[in-house]
Specification:
438 residues, transaminase activity, Aspartate Aminotransferase, domain 2, alpha/beta, single chain, Aminotrans_3, 15 strands, Aminotrans_3_PPA_site, PyrdxlP-dep_Trfase, Aspartate Aminotransferase, domain 1, 4-stranded mixed beta sheet, 3 domains, aminotransferase, 7-stranded mixed beta sheet, 13 helices
Length: 438
């Protein structure tokens, strides 16, 4: 119990338990494995209150969808205003201004001194699928190069592009063809040198058959892995050399989480196509593909789209989110949060042997837990123990990493220093207990 955390029952409480019983009867079993057994009743900013009246500090941010926090009043007001006018038409049937406004704002924000075009979709996987479709149509090639530990979605193509077999791919084959996986070079998990990457590429695929490289500038589900200096610049150089389009997957890292609206802006790299989703519309289903206009203009009419793509209610939410990021100086706030997070976590690393690495950019930070600092063997079980202990003491934290041995910050950029400090008090206790039990 603290200033913000308030636990009135055991977790889960009786009302949450009753809801779980109803869930087990009708909800598909694969969907019944939530991080939290406590069912939400309301959320504001970085706080969540469950149906039993327990209040948690939420560091998961709707799995990265709530950079502006739960129920931001400006977002909810925009949604209410749109709902009172119309809910849907399909933009390619009867167009509407909210779609146009979001496209204008994203085109202006995206890096690159060239004209840009924007297409809106429903979620991150759709954005990635369409980025690949666009790349293949424009280049006349079929190959797609992705990276180890990447996550791009769960549709047929995007689960093929995703690295982790279980639970995302096991039993769901056969997979999409012409997808090739290459090393994502990082300081903590070195595989090859940056200057060796092109030679290795040539052993997997003829570059003249590759339509696009699809890369997360900072890997999300893979454990918030930041690339080695020069890696993204090398990808840009190699892609230009072979006429390959560079696609930046900003689904999780975008909308200010790294201190830049697009995480790729942390490097001197301008991609041909950018995909963005999650926090774009504060949890409403919306994604976008932003591309060079000369690329988009080569596609025939109706070749991309979707009935619900760019729903007007979601567009109004996104337009407001973009303005909030600027008006409330959330890019600067992400940088400040990153410093606060690291001030705690770097100290923990010195105290607790199970912490192998602390990494990230801005508020997009992660801890990797290991059994031994020499072998760097993943401490998956200890990570799960920490997450569970935090939950039962009022803090929701998200795991990640291909071995499930990382904790990542998907926190709202609206969280206060006091809320984060209270949450970290709980979290450090859990880390200390795990360190003792190893």
């Amino acid at each position: 119990m603290g200033t913000f955390i308030s636990l009135k029952t055991a977790i889960p409480g009786p009302k949450s338990i009753e809801l779980a019983k109803r869930e087990a009867k009708v909800v598909a079993a694969p969907m019944c494995d939530a991080l939290s057994p406590a069912w939400i009743a309301e959320g504001h900013g970085a706080l969540v209150t469950d149906v039993d009246g327990n209040t948690f500090i939420d560091l998961t941010g709707g799995w990265g969808c709530l950079a502006v926090g739960h129920s931001h009043p400006r977002v909810t007001a925009a949604i209410k205003h749109q709902v009172e006018h119309f809910l849907h038409t399909d933009f390619t049937s009867v167009p509407y201004e909210p779609y146009l406004t979001v496209c204008e704002k994203l085109a202006k924000l995206a890096p690159g001194d060239f004209e840009k075009s924007v297409a809106l979709f429903n979620n991150g996987a759709e954005a990635i699928e369409n980025a690949v479709k666009i790349s293949r149509h424009v280049t006349g090639r079929t190959g797609v190069v992705v990276f180890d530990r990447a996550f791009h979605g769960r549709t047929l193509l995007t689960m093929t592009m995703t690295h982790k077999a279980k639970p995302y791919k096991g039993g769901f084959g056969p997979f999409a063809p012409d997808v090739y996986r290459m090393p994502f070079v990082t300081p903590y998990h070195p595989s090859i040198r940056v200057d060796e990457w092109e030679k290795l590429l040539m052993t997997y695929v003829d570059p003249s058959t590759v339509a696009c490289f699809v890369v997360e500038p900072v890997q999300g589900e893979g454990g918030f892995r930041v690339p080695t200096d020069g890696f993204l610049e090398m990808l840009r150089e190699i892609s230009k050399k072979y006429g390959i389009l560079l696609v930046a997957d900003e689904i999780q890292a975008g909308v200010g989480r790294t201190g830049k609206f697009f995480s790729i802006e942390n490097w001197n790299v301008v991609p041909d196509i950018i995909c963005i989703a999650k926090s774009l519309a504060a949890g409403m289903p919306l994604s976008a593909v932003i591309a060079r206009k000369d690329i988009m203009d080569k596609l025939p009419g109706s070749s991309i789209g979707g009935t619900y793509a760019g729903n007007p209610v979601a567009c109004r939410a996104a337009s407001e989110v973009i303005d909030i990021v600027e008006d409330e100086h959330l890019l600067e706030r992400a940088v400040a949060l990153g410093k606060l997070i690291r001030s705690h976590w770097d100290t923990w690393k010195e105290k607790y042997e199970i912490i192998g690495d602390v990494r990230g950019i801005g508020a997009m930070q992660a801890i990797e837990f290991i059994k031994d600092r020499t072998t760097r063997e993943p401490a998956t079980q200890l990570n799960g123990q920490i997450i569970k202990e935090c939950l039962h003491h009022g803090v929701l934290v998200a795991g990640s990493g291909i071995y499930g041995n990382c904790i990542r910050m998907l926190v709202s950029l609206e969280i206060t220093d006091e809320q984060l400090t209270e949450a970290f008090g709980v979290m450090e206790t859990a880390v200390a207990h795990a360190n003792e039990s190893r």
